[in-house]
Amino acid sequence: MEPKNEKTPDYICDICRKKPATVQISGEGQYCLDCYNEKMLNAYGVENTFDYPKSMTVIEPNGAMHTFQIEHMVLGPLVSWDAIEQGGHYHFKESSNVEANGSATAQMFFRKIVDGVCTKSLEEVPHRIDNILFRNDKYIQLRDKGSINIVEDEADSERVLFEIDGERFRGEDLEKLFGGRQGFVIRYDVQDGVAPILKENEYLVPVYITKDSLIGEMNMVVNIYTDRKFLSYKNVLGFREAFDKVLDKLKVLADAGKRKEALAAGREMVRILTEIETDDDSFPISDMELISDIVDPFGIDEKLRNLIWDYIEGL
Ligand SMILES: [Zn+2]
């Protein structure tokens, strides 16, 4: 089975005998996309719930309009979705399970298209900067966060193009889109184009992490699992589960480049641990080490080392 590129009217769908055939299955026949999908759904014994508008227009706040042609294709147990902009370069993809409701999936896909069009990765720079890209009478650069699609250069199979906000750029343009960012670092995360931004039941929640918020959470964990600052060996497991979550946030703070604040929080967390009495053999030295590994991975902070050593000597 292979999609046909040329939609010549010579190839008429074997089933409806009306629309041009765009899919050919060797030894079986040729079909238009609608008849092909219907045939595949029948083969899977799945009801056709793929009822959705095949065209949608997104209007941006600045009035720019983007019209998309939307189609889906049943490929075995998967359904592949494409939204191709008419007269533009936006192209969105999605995949779903053949048994998932087709019109509900289309609604989610529409949402993704609107988000994709309205979330911009490029920004205009109000003044001229050397090395920056000048296009359509504007100086433009990439925002701090965004996405870039890597697409085939139809004119030259040896090259790729970079698609940003529905516009295409060459490698040397990309250089200029980053021209104003000398001394900065790009952390990259290449993903499959059909990967959803968030998985099912995942939500983006703004998280504020500071030294004070971490100490507050740490004190709460201590209050829950200790009896007036005595931690029974029976409660160590529960304590550590809750403590792990505080450690995760401490790591986020340290990884976000807030090393000083993370170190100050780490010292305070170790100090809180020194005040807890226990009848457990492993607590709290290994926990102190976990903190130290995050905030002082090279073991060079004397204050933190001394806190831990004084505690061990005092045992
Ligand atoms: Zn047909």
How would the blueprint of this fold be written?
Layout: E1 2-3, E2 23-25, E3 29-31, H1 33-44, E4 55-59, E5 65-75, E6 78-85, E7 91-97, H2 102-118, E8 122-125, E9 133-135, E10 138-142, E11 149-152, E12 160-164, E13 167-169, H3 171-177, H4 211-225, E14 230-231, H5 236-255, H6 259-274, E15 277-278, H7 285-295, H8 302-314
Task: Write up this protein.
- The protein is an alpha+beta fold and 315 residues long.
- The chain folds into three domains: 46-118; 122-181, no CATH class; 211-313, no CATH class.
- Helices cover 35% and strands 21% of the residues.
- It contains eight helices and 15 strands.
- The strands form five sheets. The chain has a four-stranded antiparallel β-sheet. It has a three-stranded antiparallel β-sheet with strand order 1-2-3. Strands 8-10-9 form a three-stranded antiparallel β-sheet, covered by helices on one side.
- Helix 4 (211-225) packs antiparallel against helix 5 (236-255), helix 6 (259-274) runs parallel beside helix 8 (302-314) and helix 7 runs antiparallel to helix 8.
- The N and C termini lie far apart (74 Å).
- The protein binds zinc ion (ZN).
